[in-house]
Specification:
With 155 residues, the protein is of the alpha/beta class. It has a single domain, classed as Rossmann fold. 41% of the residues lie in helices and 19% in strands. The longest helix is centred in the last third of the chain and has 22 residues. It is globular, with a radius of gyration of 14 Å. The protein starts with 10 loop residues before the first strand and ends in an 11-residue tail after the last helix.
Amino acid sequence: MLQQTSQKKIRILVAKPGLDGHDRGALVLCRAFRDAGMEVIYSGLLPTPEQVAQMAIDEDVDVVALSLLNGAHMTAFPKVKEFLKKKGGADIIVVGGGIIPDTDKPKLEKLGIIGNFGPGSSLKSIIEFIATRVNEKSKAHKKTGSPRVKGRSRK
């Protein structure tokens, strides 16, 4: 079981934006996140980046975990981030994964898409990475007294 600094479970949306029907890895992640004590929402296959962002807002998630194996990560991931900003979810953590060349990882990081895990990444390291980022963000919000998201705060 994952150790969290707050009483609230981490809410995570696992999504495969765009045209990528390979969901076995995403489903493995969903189960691992659930087993680690997170509340998991799965987008299903083939949502658009805008649909992913809207789901994240509607479900009031802490994290969006994106996965693509089709090489469209430099298009789809930034679009999800862009739609999150437009819809008021700029502070939602976005984590990437899938087949991402090492040369693209720094580009994604610059855009605020972190982690960018590839094949062979351990589930434990992914879970710990996410938990650490959520807990750091939670502590930062407590220090500043700012709500989780402008206009929305989870109760």
